[in-house]
């Protein structure tokens, strides 16, 4: 039977291992934003962030003119959503070069820490 202090030790150790493994894993990811690429393509037509800002500016103007204008709110939030989705879709992520030992250490910390953390949350 596992007593309360053993569960606490497993919880803390698992949390620290998981946090350390996630930190090392996220440090190993190289993120590249493709700002020189268009946000969206429709055949040969390219839609850049500048084109998405036009309805955004119109929406902001409509909102400041009449706050109850649903078209202005739609243009504003639709443009913001298009910009966020475009930036996220143009983001490229890759892992940096690392040795097999580094990768195994990261995976053991992450998965082992998750296992310890979850085992501390069991009721048995």
Structural overview:
With 124 residues, this protein is of the alpha+beta class. It folds into two domains: 57 residues; 63 residues. 67% of the residues lie in helices and 13% in strands. It has four helices and four strands. The strands form two sheets. The chain has a two-stranded antiparallel sheet. The chain has a two-stranded antiparallel ribbon with strand order 2-3. A hairpin with a 2-residue loop joins strand 2 and strand 3. The N and C termini lie close together (8 Å). The mean pLDDT is 86.
Short note summarizing the structure:
The chain has helices at residues 4-27, 49-65, 70-89, 100-121; strands at residues 29-33, 40-42, 45-47, 91-95.
Q: Topology, pairings included?
A:
Elements: H1 4-27, E1 29-33, E2 40-42, E3 45-47, H2 49-65, H3 70-89, E4 91-95, H4 100-121
Antiparallel strand pairs: 1-4, 2-3
Helix pairs in contact: 1-4, 2-3
| Helical/strand content category | alpha+beta
Number of domains: 2
Largest sheet: 2 strands, antiparallel
Numbering strands along the chain, what is their spatial order in the largest sheet?
Answer: 1-4
Strand content: 5-15%
Runs in which pLDDT lies below 50 for 5 or more consecutive residues are none
Radius of gyration: 24 Å
Number of helical regions? 4
Mean pLDDT: 86
Overall outline: elongated
Give the strand tally: 4
How far the N terminus sits from the C terminus, by CA atoms, comes to 8 Å
Helix content range:
55-70%
List the secondary-structure elements in sequence, H or E.
HEEEHHEH
């Amino acid at each position: 039977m596992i007593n309360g202090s053993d569960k606490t030790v497993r919880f803390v150790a698992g949390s620290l291992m998981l946090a350390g493994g996630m930190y090392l894993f996220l440090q190993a990811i190289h993120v590249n934003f493709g700002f020189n690429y268009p946000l969206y393509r429709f055949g040969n037509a390219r839609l850049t962030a500048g084109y998405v800002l036009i309805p955004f500016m119109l929406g902001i103007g409509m909102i400041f003119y009449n706050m109850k204008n649903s078209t202005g709110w739609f243009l504003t939030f639709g443009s913001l959503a298009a910009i966020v989705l475009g930036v996220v879709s143009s983001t490229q992520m890759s892992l940096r070069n690392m040795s097999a030992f580094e990768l195994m250490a990261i995976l053991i910390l992450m998965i082992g820490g998750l296992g310890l953390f979850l085992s501390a949350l069991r009721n048995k």
